[in-house]
Write a structure and sequence with these properties.
With 440 residues, this protein is mainly alpha-helical. It has 18 helices and no strands. The chain is 73% helix and 0% strand.
Length: 440
């Protein structure tokens, strides 16, 4: 394919991706679901199972293999920018005496689903073989089955928290903080599983662990004061400041990806250490364009993920597996999160809210599933099952939050403090949320 034809294909595919994904996100918002749910659905619809099956000629014309690298690059860039914004918005000072609760929730939300997922994989491996898995399970495959149930999507959870006015409430802060800690644990375990399965890294795991620990220490101890000194002393204009910080996030993501820890680590870490305003508030001139850029480009990631979903090969076994896995994923997450929050001192309404929020998957789950598929830890059919599980658990989050809020309102005679104020209308900002338009 000539360079001109390649560019033409990429431009046409980009136009379809952006319009379809944002239209589906708007429709999801109208149905009371997070924007991201609509984008994920559009990504699956634009994949080979739907568009490729109903209009194969159109699919081949829009998504030839030659533009796959460019689409993947846009997808990774959007993830870095989005997760940098998530890290920048995360204020662990809000935890106060709830820090121990967040750690307890994170550990419980990892250990219980991990044990159930790994145990179920061993117990029902014969059924998984019907979904294309090999005859005998390997240790990385079993571990990955547990990780698939353990993941909580920080970007999706943050969007849901923001959309429901929970950003400054105890359950919202505990859930977001616990999800951030949980991601660190999940990605660390996933990195070990991927390395156990092989890889092309020249350095072994011990050396990479040492380098990663040193990198994290340097970022936490030196990056923020250096960035603050550079930004304040030079009085950079907003566009240059944003370029510098996005470059910092991309560099941090490149380092963690090179160490086998994926770009999500570096992006979140860069966002956490990015300097705020002198009074500790967020810089709207930085946050608003970050959200605009990531919101615009995230559909590329959903299309890349949706292209690997094989609807045609699911069969009855696959759809039964979707129901079983979704039930396990929801029950283990909600139950463990709720129990841990109660042990941490939250009342039953706040604890129930935390458990429901921890069950949201989405972006982070898709990242993990893509990594597992590329490493050979998943078959295409099992990957499809787990993608639908991620979509289903995310879809269930909003209705379950509404069911949780209503009993609290009836008992107290006013909107439940745990639930926060009513969700702002589309395009409006809650006074208790970030001063930017919602992405989720």
């Amino acid at each position: 394919m000539s360079p001109d034809a390649l560019i033409a294909h990429f431009v046409g595919a980009s136009a379809l991706i952006l319009v379809a994904a944002h239209a589906a996100g708007w429709a999801a918002r109208k149905l009371g679901q997070p924007y991201i749910v609509g984008q994920l659905t559009a990504g699956i619809a634009l994949g080979p199972s739907l568009l490729g099956h109903t209009a194969p000629g159109v699919y081949e014309a829009l998504f030839p293999e030659e533009i796959g690298t460019a689409l993947t690059g846009f997808a990774q860039f959007s993830l870095v920018v989005f997760l940098f914004a998530v890290g920048y918005e995360l204020d662990l000072k809000l935890l106060g005496d709830r820090a121990r609760t967040a750690v307890t929730v994170a550990l419980a939300s990892f250990l219980v689903p991990m044990a159930v997922g790994s145990g179920a994989a061993l117990l029902f491996w014969d059924r998984l073989r019907a979904l294309g898995m090999p005859r005998d399970p390997s240790v990385p495959m079993v571990v990955f089955a547990g990780i698939a149930l353990s993941v909580t999507a920080v970007p999706v959870l943050t969007a849901i928290v923001r959309e429901n006015g929970l950003a400054r409430t105890v359950p919202g802060v505990v859930a977001v903080s616990a999800a951030g800690l949980l991601d660190v644990v999940c990605w660390t375990v996933l990195a070990g599983a991927l390395m156990e399965n092989g890889g092309d890294h020249a350095l072994g795991w011990p050396w990479r662990a040492v380098i990663a620990a040193g990198f994290v220490a340097v970022i936490l101890l030196a990056a923020r004061p250096l960035l603050r000194l550079l930004l304040r002393r030079t009085h950079m204009e907003a566009s240059l400041r944003m370029a510098l910080l996005i470059g910092f996030a991309l560099g941090s993501a490149w380092v963690t990806h090179s160490l086998g820890l994926h770009v999500i680590f570096g992006a979140l870490l860069a966002g956490v250490v990015a300097p705020r305003e002198p009074d500790g508030t967020l810089d709207p001139d930085l946050l608003r364009p970050l959200h605009d850029v990531s919101s615009l480009l995230l559909p590329f990631f959903f299309v890349i993920s949706g292209q690997a979903v094989a609807l045609n090969g699911m069969g009855a076994t696959g759809w039964v597996a979707v129901l079983v896995v979704t039930a396990l994923a929801a029950v283990t997450k909600i139950g463990s999160g709720h129990a841990a929050a109660r042990l941490g001192g939250l009342d039953r309404h706040d604890a129930r809210t935390v458990g429901i929020l921890m069950s949201a998957r989405g972006l982070t789950e898709l990242i993990a599933l893509n990594a597992g598929l590329q490493a050979g830890l998943l078959s295409e059919r099992l990957y499809s099952v787990l993608v639908f599980m991620a979509l289903a658990t995310t879809l269930l989050t909003q209705p379950l939050l509404l069911l949780t809020r209503r009993p609290a309102e009836r008992e107290s005679g006013r909107p439940d403090d745990a639930a926060g104020p009513p969700a702002p209308a589309p395009g409006q900002d809650s006074t208790r949320t970030a001063p930017v338009a919602d992405l989720g």
